[in-house]
Design a protein that fits this description.
The protein has about 425 residues and is an alpha/beta fold. It has 13 helices and 18 strands.
Length: about 425
């Protein structure tokens, strides 16, 4: 059969889909990752994290149901976070789907044998062949008031170090040059295995894998950050000077209501520590604006903090009220128009900060990974940029460049979120 896997949501879902695809391919099925391709089976791996993601997932389900009516698809199976949270509602509202399953049920349906996503290193990559994600754990032990992840994914379960080393080696053997370590919370890695945080030990083990030139860290929780991680980052050149550490807010009152732990003083000191111990590091963070009860003064406090902290990379979301979370009881009192205005103010400020950083790079030479070839230019990234979420480098087509390889680029021009340059010998 031809099995079309459509993945929505985060990079953790990408890895889950790749594991399913590998199982299907082992059975002799043909797997594709194209939404519009004619196929025997469509598997939609959904996201149910926030309202916009749920809407996107439902729209994709309805699109595939329409394709089924037109005989472009024979069967539709839906898995993932949306099913975990809203299966009864989905069964009632979209009965044309052939099945709503968790991953174990889907495995039994397709191959009459169950598998666990965290206990295999077999994957069929859906990313470009030169980079991949490595999911080091599943679930989350944190109890952030606004977050539905523990409801969906459950408690943290860490993948043992030997399995992760084996998986990374297989990625390297396939030609992968860059790996992003991902989890709901990287910093808690290993707690369930040994009773202590093992991220630094894992990083040391992964650094022994030959063939991987860039490794970067995503989704590190700030509270009680294991500072030995910074020592490993500086000891092994494979680790990009890059850290994704979502702080969500800076107001002590908001952080307390969010159940994040820590304080504005702690976060500020942690940022200073990162920059002192890893010179030149690029920090990516994520913020929530419009959280219940956020005042005008608290928003201005956040804006002032962004001006001081000057994150190299920053994304923001407007608050989404999630049923079943502690913050749900607080309601959603901040008007949508106010949330949008605050979001726009944050992103306008970040655009100015990002442009200033990029202008500083004009005239310098940077190591760039070539991601794609377009008609008039190549598209690449620096060590400070992760795929899909960060800045791009547009490279003049002065010579032939192999996609998936590194080159050195002289930066000649800067825009808020893009750099432009020419390859040098």
């Amino acid at each position: 059969m031809t099995c079309n896997i459509i993945t929505l949501g985060c990079s953790k879902n990408v890895v889950d889909s790749e594991v399913i695809a590998a199982q299907l391919e082992k059975q002799g099925h043909r797997v594709v990752y194209e939404s519009g391709e004619k196929s025997d089976i469509v598997i939609i791996n959904t996201c149910g994290f926030i309202g916009d993601a749920r809407e996107e997932s439902v729209n994709e389900i309805l699109l595939q149901v329409d394709r089924k009516r037109r005989h472009q698809v024979k069967r539709i199976y839906v898995v993932g976070c949306l099913v975990k949270r809203f299966k009864p509602d989905l069964l009632e509202s979209v009965p044309e789907v052939d099945g709503y399953y968790d991953f174990g049920e889907l495995a039994e349906l397709l191959r009459e044998d169950s598998f666990q996503l965290l206990q295999t290193s077999e994957r069929l990559l859906s990313t470009p062949r030169h980079y991949a994600y490595l999911k080091i754990s599943e679930g989350c032990d944190r109890q952030c008031s606004y977050c539905s992840i523990p409801l969906i994914r459950g408690k943290q379960v860490s993948k043992p170090i030997p399995l992760l080393v084996e998986e990374m080696q297989k990625l390297a053997d396939q030609g992968v040059r860059e790996v992003m370590l991902i989890a709901q919370d990287l910093t808690y890695y290993g707690i369930d295995l040994t009773g202590k945080r093992e991220l630094a030990s894992l990083m040391e083990s992964l650094a022994q894998v030959r063939g991987i030139e860039w490794i970067r860290l995503h989704y590190a929780y700030p509270l009680n950050f294991p500072l030995e991680v910074l020592d490993v980052m500086t000891a092994f050149p494979q680790y990009c000077r890059y850290m994704d550490i979502p702080i969500q807010h800076i107001s002590d009152d908001i952080l307390r209501s969010m159940r994040r732990g820590g304080s504005s003083e702690y976060i500020s000191q942690l940022i200073d520590t990162f920059r002192e111990r890893v010179p030149g590091i690029a920090l990516r963070t994520t913020l929530i604006t419009g959280y219940p009860g956020e005042t005008h003064e608290q928003h201005k406090e956040l804006v002032a903090f962004i001006q001081r902290a000057r994150f190299e990379r920053l994304g923001a979301f407007t608050y989404s009220q999630e049923e079943g979370t502690p913050a749900f009881e607080l309601g959603d009192p901040v008007k949508r128009s106010v949330k949008t205005k605050r979001y726009n103010e944050i992103m306008k400020l970040q655009e100015e900060i990002s442009l200033a950083f990029n202008k500083e790079k004009v005239g310098t030479t940077m190591k760039v990974m070539v991601d794609a070839e377009e008609e008039d230019y190549y598209v690449g990234r620096t060590e400070f940029d992760s795929p899909d979420v960060d800045n791009l480098v547009f490279i003049n087509k002065d010579r032939k460049l192999p996609v998936g390889e590194f080159c050195h680029v002289e930066i000649t021009e800067a825009a808020p979120y893009d750099l432009f340059g020419t390859v040098i010998a």
